[in-house]
Amino acid sequence: MADLRDYIHWRGDLTFGRDPFNLVDNLIFSWLAYVDFTGCVPLLGESGSVTLGQACETFFRLHDEKQLAADKSFVASAPYVLRECAKQPRFRHIRLGSWQKIYDEKRQTQFAAVTFLLPDGTWYAAFQGTDDTIIGWKENFNMSFLTPVPGQQKAAEYLNALKLPKTVRLRVGGHSKGGNLACYGALHAQETVQDRILHIYDNDGPGFENSAEFAKAAEKIASRIIKIVPQYSIIGFLMENTGNYRIVKSSGVRVMQHDATTWQVMGTDFEYADDLDENAKIWNAALYKWCYSYDRSERQKFVDSVFELVTASGASTLTDINNAFFKSAGASFRKLADLSPDKKRSVLRTFASLYAEYFKERSNRHITDITELVKNRQER
Question: Is residue 43 helix, strand or coil?
């Protein structure tokens, strides 16, 4: 089975002049957005750009192998994908600019974006998905009760701030939360920017929490959204989506298929599957019903309580938790014990209701189609 890295090696000698931009290139740029380009790429608002090869050289001068090896997140491979790209004529001379990174604990915001200037005269604005930080994951979960979250607002502001030459057309994309930011940013960008967007690439990103956003997206940009999900997609079906998606095969196990480096490639495209995994369908229907069985205030209380437990040890990243798992778990259990009886009951009852919904879906003779669930909710 071939994957993203194989594509880089097999097609890397073919320039964009010989082999035009394709969906796999989109995924590569979305994955490269996970690289911390601070100090490597000119900032948003600054003039100039650097080649991908130059950005790679600077990055590995600023970050040693020991530091990179300490990253245990699922996107830890991104710098190494960058290094592989830098070896290939197809990617080495692509120019990068408009880097922006925002991390704000107070506003619970983790945002980053970078723009690739392609040889075909188009630009690809890539939004970073959820990184290793707990704040990043908190913002992700905040999407279940809040629209917009700060990162979504930043996405629209980022696109508006790009200094687009008159002849340039724009592609916008991202992986995971980055896919959601790409959709939201494109939807809320100024019309002068929105009209120049060719496609929006949503690589297994969650949908919109509220129906109004969903309806606006369906009316204004749905025809330009290309949504790609793996067979065992869970993140990509959270909340409300347009209902149009392509399913790719993956070498990952269950939810680890969210790791885009496991997606299978055939030539200049993905290897597609006919349908989602049956168990993923069950989870998607259960999560959708469970989420919308609570109102926004109840969802907020639950998310805040869960992250209060997660951060009880003082950990700020998932790597921190992984490196001191028993310490983190012990702190979380002690924090749970310290919660008020009402709060504790609420958290445990909410978790229990999710599993009850899952087992109810699993026992159904016919698995509920999540697209139908979304449609029915819209009609109500």
Answer: strand
